[in-house]
Amino acid sequence: MSSRLQVNPIACDGHGLCAELFPERVSLDDWGYPIVDDAPIPRPLEQHARRAIDACPVLALRLEQLARRD
Amino acid sequence: MSVSVARLLRGLHTDGSPVDLREHRHLHGPLPGRLDGRSLLDAVEGSNLRGRGGGGFPTALKLRAVASGRGRTIVLANGVEGEPLSGKDRVLLRYVPHLVLDGVEVAAQAVGADRAIVAVSESAGELAVLQTALRERAGANRVEIRIAAVPEALVAGEETALVNAVGGGPPRPTATPPRPFERGVDGRPTLVQNVETLAQLALIARHGAAWFREVGTRDEPGTALVTLSGAVQLPGVYEVPLGTPLRELVAEAGGATQQPRALLIGGYFGTWLDAETALGCELSDASLGVAGAMLGARAVAVLPQGSCALAEVFRVSRFLADESAGQCGPCVHGLDAIAQAIASLAQGRSLDGDLRIRRWLEQVEGRGGCHHPDGAARFIHSALDVFGDEVALHSRSKRCGGRDLHLLPVQGSQERRAA
CA B193: distance to chain centroid? Predict the structure, then answer.
């Protein structure tokens, strides 16, 4: 089971903490809003993802679980 | 020879008055007495009808998704035509309201709904026509139909925004999932369907799938309503088979008033094509897709030679930025910045040509809660590609020598409300 990060663009206010805490998957656009790379997140990085999710002041991030590919 | 085929627009009055119920039944015959959901769904599937609101989603799939939802279902007819270049839905609602209402009944039957809502813009004249039509049908309807007037805004026609608006909320999109077919009006599975799609359903229920497929192409059968505007003799709404060559469509409108330079296909969320390419295409997603365009809202505008395209493109970009629902950062800030940059470009004040605009277009695409920024990006991106020579002229000498014809209307919702 792997996962990927998703942002709810309507909830997001562009605080930008996610890009600081999880630069492996999040960069900011020219206006400070997160551009989220939706590539699967390897297990060792999941902790970073969770830190970013927990730090978001408006709860705009979530991890989507991906079904295992057989 | 005319390419028009009058199915939906059959028996249209020339004086602008609506076709009343008696006349409607005389023109089309009554709806079949017994409509069972399953055979209706089969007929719709066999017809290969796709949504006529712009998305082009297969109607049978949508009907089945709603029908298999949990709990009582609702039909929400989308008659909120926010696209400034399109007039087809208004034509249906004003002139043949009973065909749309028949379609609402058919759709309700297909998904097992006992309630239906027809949503139109609050400032639109079709409200009174619909109310009269509903009174004429009083007692004869198989479902409870009510009319909802929603605030006029480009984004109000987006299906989650429409669900919000008829529920009394602001006409703004919500995050998906859930989509309305899962959870819509009053939390129930909701079939949101464009009014032209419903009118087509009313005919499919009467005449069947094989009849529907007698015109159009194999993969994209049936007729479509197209709104033609710009440099043509007789701008307006035309009903033609899908697959009709665009050259013949323009001829149907009396031909071009001046040599065409480019055509905008699909409205303000659509794609610019140079005239030669566009006029060589057929009115189908298959043909337009090869050229990089799609039918979208089925609005086609003709821009003539000798006109300043950048002036038109700037005004529409400004309009699209102003019509953002204001919820998502990339859409709010990005479209505004892009509109400003296009103004600089047109005035010859841009230091890097269109590079910054292209970079920003990449940053807004796919980054909204709805497809507003994607559509705006498609419009602007294709304009930069098709009008590259003019961009270079503006950069060098602040102008291109073309005339600003103000062909593309940009009345914003604020102004529309005030008018």
Answer: 12
